[in-house]
DNA sequence: ATGACTGCCTCTGGCAGA
């Protein structure tokens, strides 16, 4: 079972690149973030044409998440992150697929910090922990993946100095991430690349891609019930270098059946 | 260096992203 995550930065602008990646790499499940589309405009038919069954949670202009499943209908389990009825941002979608609970998230960026956006990020992470604790207590084999907007450790960025004031690597953001790991979730990419130096994002600006100035913010967490099924995990880095690329590269995990 | 690039909706410039 191969489960992937891709912050595509606009489903409309990225559609040819996205279809190309799906056909070339053929993940069983693909979680998308930043579809930047209202529900009515989501191009479901384009995915169905190549064999993927989609569910999606859209929003005008920003955010938006979707789950695509190869040949199998995803059984939606949760739309939107619980815990705040006033939060209308489309950043969370859960589905049952092939015996796994797949939790797709687009965690708030939090810049500028300090400020209300950073407060929203930290509150969102607290709610996420509560949701994931529920799943853990039910002992569901779960994969939680997406754009976490957290640089977990210094080894996960090309430059600590360049990023030191960024919301992505503030101690509060990191603490909230490590609370999840201490709860029993396994960071699949970090487990297989303990020395770091693996990037999933390169800024469009200042020639960041050409200079390999990236960082790791797209993560895949495994619940205790499926951590021992981990076979491999990685980043489809080459897709960041293609024409009209997203600023993120896809990440993926392969789990033993 | 208040920089850079890209997508969105469209008040085609301002906002958001990271």
What does this structure look like?
The chain has 257 residues and is α+β, with helices and mostly antiparallel strands. The protein has a single domain (2-255), classed as Endonuclease/exonuclease/phosphatase (Deoxyribonuclease I, Chain A, 4-Layer Sandwich), CATH 3.60.10. The protein is 27% helix and 27% strand. Strand 1 (2-7), helix 1 and strand 2 form a beta-alpha-beta unit. Helix 3 runs parallel beside helix 5 (171-183). It binds one DNA strand of 18 nucleotides through residues 9-10, 12-14, 34, 36-37, 60-62, 109-111, 149, 163, 166-168, 201, 203-208, 215, 217, 246-247.
Short characterization:
With 257 residues, the protein is an alpha+beta fold. It is 27% helix and 27% strand. It has helices at residues 11-25, 44-49, 116-137, 160-163, 171-183, 188-192, 224-227; strands spanning 2-7, 29-33, 52-57, 65-70, 75-79, 92-97, 100-106, 142-147, 186-187, 201-202, 214-215, 218-222, 230-235, 251-255.
What is the CATH topology assignment? Deoxyribonuclease I, Chain A
Please indicate the percent range of residues in DSSP E strands (runs of 2 or more): 25-35%
The topology string of helices and strands comes to EHEHEEEEEHEHHEHEEEHEE
Into which percent range does the helicity of residues fall?
A: 25-40%
If you compute it from the alpha carbons, what radius of gyration comes out, rounded to the nearest whole angstrom?
Answer: 17 Å
What would you call the structural class?
A: alpha+beta
Please give the count of helices: 7
Quick check: average pLDDT? 96
